[in-house]
Amino acid sequence: MSSKSDEVFIGAIDQGTSSTRFLIFNVKGQIVASHQCEYENHYAKAGWVEKSPTEILESIDTAIAGTCRRFNSLGYDASQIKGVGITNQRETTVAFDIETGEALTNAIIWNDVRTKPLVRQLIDEAGSATRFASINGLPITTYFSAVKMRWMLENVPEVQAARERGTLRFGTIDTWLIYKMTGNYVTDVTNASRTMLMDIKTFKWSQECMEFFGVRESEL
Fold first, then answer.
1. Dihedral of alpha carbons 56, 214, 99, 161, sign
2. Helix (H) or strand (E) holding 168
3. What pLDDT band is residue 5 in, cutting at 50, 70 and 90?
4. pLDDT surpassing 90 at residue 133
5. Of 55, 106, 148, 201, which is the most exposed, with the fewest CB atoms less than 10 Å away?
6. pTM attached to this predicted model
7. Helices (H), the chain
8. Is 138 buried (19+), middle (13-18) or exposed (0-12) by CB count in 10 A?
9. For 39, how many CA atoms within 13 A lie in the half-sphere containing its CB?
10. Is the predicted pLDDT of residue 1 greater than 80, yes or no?
11. How many CB atoms lie within 10 A of CB 125?
12. Is the CB of residue 137 less than 8 Å from the CB of residue 109?
């Protein structure tokens, strides 16, 4: 008969628009322990929705700590968690400095609409909102990450300065969390597909889309 110490588990970070959860599952897919941490976004101006990337990271720490306390109280140890997955708000965009590891400005949340004038400009330049849909599968709207990146490049001095230094990096929430927790700068195709910058046929960054939106491959 196996003991509790022989059991193995999987953890999951669920980073959403208004809360963060950490859940621990057993091999049957059942939730053994969880903790949720709710938070408020910032609304600096009408149509703006943003959040400090540091506060998002802190909510992860709080959720993990709360879940692990519950897990420990059941007689288990964190060393029995053999892997952790992430599910996250997808189009929300973070800009940070790869040398300092610090965020350069607040994350622009997926439902932020400050980029409406920029979107109109980009559609005029492209000739159609669906100009790149055959590449990235998406229309040019305020929703997706590339226009948020472009807005930051045009409006945030800290982002502009980091580009000049060659230390600017953009990412969706998965990228930011994995970088801060492990030091690895990565994403996956499901998140990358929501940026308007990935070719959905090759699963690689599209040179044409990057050039149009003004984002460099070294920044992704």
1. negative
2. strand 168-172
3. confident
4. yes
5. 201
6. 0.93
7. 53-73, 116-126, 133-136, 145-155, 157-165, 173-182, 189-192, 207-213
8. buried
9. 22
10. no
11. 10
12. no
